[in-house]
Write a structure and sequence with these properties.
Layout: H1 7-17, H2 36-42, H3 44-48, H4 66-78, E1 82-86, H5 89-101, E2 107-111, H6 116-125, E3 128-132, E4 136-137, E5 142-143, H7 148-157, E6 164-167, E7 174-175, H8 178-187, E8 192-196, H9 212-215, E9 219-222, H10 224-227, E10 235-239, H11 248-257, H12 265-300, E11 321-322, E12 326-330, H13 338-349, E13 355-356, E14 360-364, H14 371-388, H15 411-415, E15 419-423, E16 436-438, E17 443-446, H16 454-465, E18 470-471, E19 480-484
Parallel strand pairs: 2-3, 6-8, 8-9
Antiparallel strand pairs: 1-10, 4-5, 7-11, 9-10, 12-14, 13-14, 15-19, 16-17, 16-18
Helix pairs in contact: 1-12, 4-12, 5-6, 5-11, 7-8, 12-14, 13-14
C-alpha cells in the first residue's frame, strides 16, 4: 500500500481550503467564535480542521470513505486484519476488546497489574476476573508481566475463560514470551487480548519485543500517542481475525458505543499522519530512539547511587525481552524515594518524568528526544547524586505487594450494590465498592467486590504517607471508603 498517502488529513486540508460557510457545530466556526487568546495560541489551522462528520469527511462510527481508507492503511502498517481508530485513548480500545468477547458472568484471565480501564470494562460487562500475579523483580522493586507457567495454571483451572489479557510490554518495557502465551491460549480455544499501550514502536524494529499482531494475538490496544507521535487521547485497536475468535462487526459496534459522536478530527488526523511517519520511517525512528536510550542508560550507570537495568535482567520467564527506550532509574541507594526524585527534578531542572514509585523513576525516551534532552537529564541526575549520595541511609528495598484479595462479589454487583461509608483504617474484613489505585500507572490495589485486608490498608497508607498518587475513592483524602452493606465482617 502507498503509505505516503494521508487520506483523512488530506481531505481535511482540502475541505478547509475551500473555506465553506458553516452552519454546523462546532460553534467556534473556524475559530472566529472562540476566545481570542486561545485562538492566537492554538492557531487558525487547528481550528480550520476541528470539524465534524459531514459527508466529505466520513464518519468514525460507520466509516465508508477517507476514515475507512486511513484505517486500512493503519492495519497494513501494524500487520492487522482490521484497525479501528480510537479518540477515547487506549483505555477506550482496551474496554472495546473486553466488551467484544465477554458477557455477564464470563471469566477473563488478567494480570493483577492491569490498567484500571480493564477493570472498568469488567464492571461494564459483568464479567468475573481471574487474576494472575505478575512476576516481581526484587532487585528494583517493580512488577513484570505474567509468565507462561502462570497462564498455563490459570487455563487449567479455568478452561472456560473467554479471554486471556496480556500486557506487552509492561510500563517498564519488559515482556514475557508472548508467542508462547498466545499459542497456549489458542490450544484452549481462548483468544488473547493485548494491552500494547507502551508498544507502538515494537512494530517497527526487530530489537524490540515482538508485537501482538506478529505473535498471533487476536486484539491489541496500541497507544500511538504515547510513543508514536500522534496527539494525546488518540490510539488504535488492532484486530486479527485469522484465528476465528473475533467478529470485526461486533468490535465496530462496541467501539462505537464507547465513542463520542463528536469525534475529534484533529486527533484522527494525527493518527493518519503518524501512521505515515511510522510506516515510512518507523525503523529509522526506533533505531535512533534505541541508540539515545542506550547512551542514556550507559551514562546513568556511571552515576554513583543510580542504576538503570538493561539486557542483564533477561533470561527469566517474565523477562524474555525488553524495550530499552523505557529508562527505569533506580534511586534507592541515594536514600530517597522515586517520588522525591520526581519532585527534585521538577523543582531544580524543570524536568517531568513519566512516573515514580518507592524506588524508581521512569523516563520515556521517544522519537521526540535528542542528545540535548538526554544530556539535560544526565546533568540533573549527576547533581542529584552529588546532593544525596552518602547523606541519607540507603532505603531498604521491601517488595511488599499485598496478596491478591479475596473476590467475594462480581465487581459489577459490588459497584452497583447497597453501600455505606466507613473509616478506611477500620475497614478490614469489609467488601469494598470502589477502586483504589496508584496513578500513574493506574494499577488497582483494590477493586469493587474484594475483601479489604489489614495488609491492604497498611500498604495504601504507606503509599499515601510518602506522597505517591493514590486515587479512586470518592473521599480523595482516603479517610473513608465505600463498602457493601452487610451484617458481619468477612473475617
Amino acid at each position: 500500500m502507498d503509505h505516503s498517502r494521508t487520506p483523512l488529513f488530506t481531505a481535511l486540508k482540502e475541505h478547509a481550503a475551500k473555506n465553506p460557510v458553516q452552519f454546523h457545530i462546532p460553534g467556534h466556526k473556524k475559530g472566529l467564535g472562540t476566545d481570542a487568546e486561545f485562538r492566537e495560541f492554538i492557531g487558525d489551522n487547528a481550528f480550520s480542521i476541528d470539524l465534524i462528520n459531514i459527508a466529505p469527511l466520513d464518519d468514525l462510527h460507520q466509516p465508508t470513505g477517507v476514515i475507512e481508507e486511513a484505517q486500512k492503511l493503519a492495519a497494513d502498517a501494524f500487520g492487522a486484519d482490521h484497525t479501528y481508530f480510537s479518540v477515547q485513548g487506549t483505555s477506550g480500545a482496551i474496554m472495546t476488546m473486553i466488551m467484544s468477547v465477554c458477557s455477564p458472568g464470563d471469566k477473563i484471565i488478567v494480570p493483577r497489574n492491569v490498567h484500571k480501564s480493564v477493570l472498568s470494562a469488567i464492571i461494564f460487562t459483568g464479567a468475573k476476573p481471574v487474576f494472575v500475579s505478575p512476576a516481581q523483580d526484587s532487585n528494583v522493586g517493580i512488577d513484570h508481566g505474567i509468565t507462561i507457567s502462570s497462564v498455563r495454571k490459570a487455563l487449567k483451572r479455568h478452561p472456560d475463560a473467554k479471554a486471556v489479557l496480556v500486557i506487552n510490554p509492561t510500563y517498564f518495557g519488559v515482556s514475557a514470551n508472548l508467542k508462547e502465551i498466545v499459542d497456549l491460549a489458542h490450544s484452549y480455544n481462548v483468544p488473547v487480548l493485548v494491552d500494547e499501550a507502551h508498544g507502538v514502536l515494537i512494530h517497527f524494529h526487530e530489537e524490540l519485543p515482538m508485537s501482538a499482531m506478529e505473535a498471533g494475538a487476536d486484539m491489541a490496544a496500541t497507544s500511538v500517542h504515547k510513543l508514536g507521535g500522534s496527539m494525546t487521547q488518540s490510539s488504535v485497536l488492532n484486530v486479527n481475525t485469522k484465528n476465528g475468535y473475533i467478529n470485526p462487526y461486533r468490535v465496530q459496534t462496541i467501539i462505537s458505543m464507547l465513542t463520542t459522536t463528536s469525534t475529534s478530527y484533529i486527533l484522527l488526523a494525527s493518527l493518519d499522519t503518524s501512521r505515515r511517519s511510522l510506516a515510512l520511517h518507523g525503523r529509522e525512528m526506533a533505531a535512533r530512539t534505541i541508540e539515545l536510550a542506550q547512551y542514556a542508560r550507559h551514562e546513568v550507570n556511571k552515576i554513583e547511587g543510580l542504576y538503570s537495568f538493561g539486557k542483564e535482567i533477561l533470561g527469566g520467564e517474565a523477562t524474555y525481552s525488553y524495550d530499552p527506550t523505557k529508562l527505569t532509574i533506580h534511586v534507592r541507594h541515594l536514600g530517597i524515594t522515586g517520588y522525591e526524585t520526581e519532585n527534585w527534578l521538577r523543582d531544580h531542572y524543570n524536568i517531568e518524568v513519566e512516573l515514580s514509585d518507592m524506588y524508581n523513576i521512569l523516563c520515556l525516551i521517544t522519537p521526540g528526544d535528542n542528545r540535548e534532552t538526554i544530556d539535560i537529564l544526565l546533568t540533573a541526575l549527576r547533581e542529584l547524586s552529588n546532593q544525596y549520595m552518602h547523606v541519607n541511609e540507603i532505603n531498604e528495598l521491601v517488595v511488599k505487594t499485598p496478596e491478591i484479595p479475596q473476590l467475594s462479589l462480581i465487581p459489577r454487583d459490588a459497584f452497583y450494590g447497597d453501600t455505606e461509608v466507613v473509616p478506611f483504617k477500620e475497614s478490614a474484613g469489609r467488601i469494598i465498592a470502589e477502586f483504589i489505585y496508584v496513578y500513574p500507572p493506574g494499577i488497582p490495589i483494590l477493586l469493587p467486590g474484594e475483601v479489604i485486608s489489614q495488609e491492604n490498608i497498611d500498604y495504601i497508607i504507606d503509599h499515601v504517607e510518602v506522597g505517591l498518587p493514590v486515587k479512586g475513592p470518592e473521599d480523595r483524602s482516603i479517610q473513608n471508603v465505600k463498602v457493601i452493606v452487610e451484617t458481619d465482617p468477612i473475617f
